[in-house]
Amino acid sequence: MTLEDLWKLTRRYWIMLAACACVGLALAAAYTWTRTKQYTATAQALVAAPSTSGDSTSSGAAYSSGLVAQQRAAVWADLATSRQVTGEVIKQQKLSLSKDQLATQITATVPQDKPIITVSVSAEDPARAKAIANSVVDVLTGYVQKADPNTGVAIKNTSSAVLPRSPSYPKPAKILPIGLLAGLVIGYLLALIQHRRDTRVRSTDDVEENLGASVLGVIPATRQLAAADRSLHGKQDFATREALRQLRTNLRFVDVDHDPRSIVITSARMSEGKSTVAAALAWVIADSGDKVILVDADLRRPAVAGIYDLDSSVGLTQVLAGTTSVEDALQPTDKHGLFVLTAGQIPPNPSELLGSQRMKQLLDSLTGTYRVILDAPPLLPVTDAALLSASADGAVVVVAASDTRVEHVQRARANLEAVGGRVLGGVLNRVNTRRINRIMYGDTQYGHGAYGTYAGEKYYGDAPEGGQRSAAKHGQRASTSQPSSDKDSDVPESRRVRRRERAK
């Protein structure tokens, strides 16, 4: 795992990591406060060898005396915990401890290259620890002098113990960081396990790696696109409009030599936003001046008629069955140049209709004049979209961020490739608005908000309702909508009559 992977893991599971760190810190604090406090007092005794005189032998004799003192200090340090010394200390201090119990509280050490015996005693009472430490050194000194008086090596108390002010155990300054670190380590282990198990698509890299095609657009999760009117007829926020315009632009550059005229919009599963993307994409393409037909090719769960509030009694199924003509089945919308071919009556054989030769002929006839957007069923439950993509110029797969799983995208790609369908690209839908700039632009400053005051203008994109852009200050007028007569110029007479009747 690289540092970048670790940073992504931290950013994705920071709540879990913070919770584990807090739990580890809390457990360490609880351990600290429930332990019995121990205080440690330290006293020292110096082991000195006899001095020698004479210039010629002073250096060698001093070195030899030092070695003897160090050897004696190491031997006598072991006597500090002997039963003879501990028994005498118990008598002097009137302790209610056994010799072995007292020996566990005493530690005698000799520093390297120094003939000094350091005696440390731990006890619950700091005054008691001090008294025992001084008593151990006094008893040890007296015992050595009596047991081995003719060695010429002396031992004497050089540093008495002082009253300890703070406990030596437990030490919060050491235990709390250990608890915090242990909590973080456990948190990262849990995060790694969860990361391995969680195969949800979260970034454009995930889509491109498993779909085998580029991401053409990143659509934010907004209330407008989740409403009943999911077209762009209503007032949309800037980020949503720019994301859809970016999708429209990228589609035109997918294959500059063979501009796709019939595009299937599908997804791996249900409820990933394919109908929403199809309806909004058709709107923004028409907004650029192209003539567009939005075909509801989802003959199982049609949704386009509801999005645009159109009549769904006559549509694609009647056209394919030959009971009505395309001109009579097309319905105009409030957007000039955008027409809708609803699904019509639900047939018993949707797959056969969408994969038929008549469907291919219909697409060939429509693409000569219009750009056709087809809202198709999801790829995994049924084969309709895969069969339809074989007749169209390609398919765009909509992927719901943090919902669709990697294996779903892989299977959707396999279903399209199995029938020779072409994957034009993917759309990452319902992205958290707080993450969309990072997903689309990385860590640069060129997010959507960066253009809010572009070139000194107070608004970038569509002018606010009831007003004009600040560019009007430079002699530019805000564009006005075309008259209704212009919008109806390309609509068949029968459709115009129906539209006027509904308006009444």
Quickly list its features:
Rossmann fold, Alpha-Beta Plaits, 46% helix, transferase, rod-shaped, 504 residues, 3 domains, alpha/beta
Side by side, the strands of the main sheet go: 5-12-11-6-10-7-9-8
Describe the sheet with the most strands.
Answer: 8 strands, mixed
The CATH class of the largest domain turns out to be Alpha Beta
| Structure summary, number of beta strands | 12
Give unreliable regions as ranges.
440-495
**Whole-number count of domains:** 3
Write down the Rg.
42 Å
CATH architecture of the largest domain: 3-Layer(aba) Sandwich
| SS content category | alpha/beta
Short description:
46% of the residues lie in helices and 14% in strands. With 504 residues, the protein is of the alpha/beta class.
